[in-house]
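WARN retry 2 of 3 for item q-0093 after timeout on previous attempt; input resubmitted unchanged.
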Amino acid sequence: MIWQQLQSIAGSYPLALRGLGMTVMLSLISLVLGTLIGFGLGILRTGGNRLISGVIGAWVDLIRGTPFLVQIFLIFFILPELGIELDAFTAGIIALTNLAACFICEIVVAGIRSVPT
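OK item q-0093 returned
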């Protein structure tokens, strides 16, 4: 009885390793893109243009205030209704990159504003 359960678990290792590889790839791509975009947004937000700062601030507040699962559903299900076809991996990259960029943006803004002028 136990041997059959162990055999079924052992048979699923290739799928688990494939899933692990996809997860690591998704995380790395999103982390790198989110960091680059977040640094850019943070620097733009601390600039002198109030319009750009306000738009970026509103976007960051919207993304950080919305549950992440809702964002994933919007990207995966609503964008195809608007004519933008995405596979699951691309939708995941967009959602995670957007969230990471907003958090990095806030970190950069806080760091810049903490330095006395």
